[in-house]
Specification:
By secondary structure, this protein is an all-alpha fold. It contains seven helices and no strands.
Length: about 100
């Protein structure tokens, strides 16, 4: 696991604070569309879809097919879900997805 000092900066903190200022999905859509390329949005969307499907306990191959991803990408997201900074798990829990214990 990395520490915040390994990848954060004043600019990244400013970005995260900007995200926290968004009030609804419409504002988030507008902000991210201005901030990111369509490809970047598609990649983040795909990663979030993979994380949700992993939380549901779906098999890697099924997830890869459903998201048009490689099994390597699914495996990488699974690693971040289990051993990352805890961000995926935090949001999955808040949205009511199963815990890791329920998916194993």
């Amino acid at each position: 696991m990395t520490t915040n000092a390994d990848w954060t900066s004043d600019d990244s903190t400013a970005l995260f604070e900007a995200v926290l200022s968004l009030r609804d999905v419409g504002e988030a859509e507008r902000f991210f569309r201005d901030l990111c390329t369509m490809r970047e949005i598609e990649e983040m969307t795909q990663r979030w879809a993979i994380a949700r499907l992993l939380a549901e306990g779906r098999p890697y191959r099924e997830i890869a097919e459903a998201t048009a991803s490689s099994t390597a990408t699914v495996t990488r997201i699974a690693q971040w879900l289990r051993h990352g900074e805890g961000g995926y798990r935090l949001v999955l829990d808040r949205l009511g997805f199963p815990t890791d214990q329920e998916t194993t």
